[in-house]
Write a structure and sequence with these properties.
Layout lengths: L1 E9 L2 E9 L3 E5 L6 H9 L6 E8 L10 E4 L21 H10 L16 H13 L5 E5 L7 H18 L2 E6 L2 H7 L2 E6 L2 E7 H6 L4 H11 L7
Length: about 230
């Protein structure tokens, strides 16, 4: 999928003006305020009142949330109703729910529980299962591992990579964490103040960044670490 133009304006001010291509999995990386979240909201049709989006794309599927697009939010605790059993928060048959639970590594017994009875890692798996319910062509991820400890973070990222290969959806992963980005994604697009400063194959950009801003992000994330292979 190619986004040839995504421009977001508020009054006379241009907040985001970018383009990118998602071949399989793309990390959209930048610091807070760079335009990452606005980009996700634009693709989901959830921009705040007053903001106008101009979107031009070349895709074999319709860009519409709930049909071709699914979304995994940053905080699974706010994505689920705490007073409703897990099984009641899906909109498909019990057989399909149990199959999805198996795919994300959860026991079907958890379907009878309420969200506060599950751990953060379990809840994020529930939200991922819900996102797969509609068989999306594009999965949008809004820093879905931020609230998790390092062990669960890596487990969730590995799970998402396995699910992407099995279900053959494209992934747009919004994050400020270069370490997580390289675990999950093949390509990277670095944005600053609503503009693309660098993009390309993940490992090539990490090993030989061209933009000063990209170098700064890499140094901040990988201080005293080696790149993962």
């Amino acid at each position: 999928m190619k986004i040839s133009k995504l421009q977001i304006q508020l009054a006379e001010q241009t907040l985001v003006d970018i383009s990118f291509t998602i071949s399989t999995s793309l990390a959209l990386v930048g610091q807070s305020g760079s335009g990452k979240s606005l980009t996700l909201k634009a693709l989901l049709g959830m921009l705040p009142d007053g903001m106008v989006c101009e979107l031009e794309h070349d895709s074999i599927y319709e860009l519409k949330a709930g049909k071709s697009i699914s979304f995994v939010p940053q905080n699974p605790f706010t994505a689920l109703s705490p007073l409703t059993k897990i099984k009641k928060q899906f909109f498909t048959s019990m057989d399909k729910i149990e199959t999805l639970f198996e795919k994300v590594g959860l026991r079907k017994e958890l379907l009878e529980r309420f969200p506060p009875e599950l751990s953060g890692g379990q809840l994020q798996r529930v939200v991922i299962a819900m996102a797969l319910e509609s068989q999306p062509k594009l999965l949008l991820l809004d820093e879905p591992t931020t609230a998790l400890d390092p062990k669960n973070r890596d487990l969730i990222l590995s799970l998402l990579k396995e699910l992407q290969a099995e279900f053959e959806f494209n992934t747009l992963f919004v994050t400020h964490d270069m370490n997580s980005a390289q675990i999950l994604c093949d390509d990277i697009c670095v944005i600053k103040n609503g503009k693309v400063v660098e993009s390309g194959v993940m490992q090539s950009v990490l090993k030989n960044p061209q933009a000063t801003y990209t170098k700064t992000l890499i140094e901040a994330n990988f201080a005293n670490r080696e790149f993962r292979r």
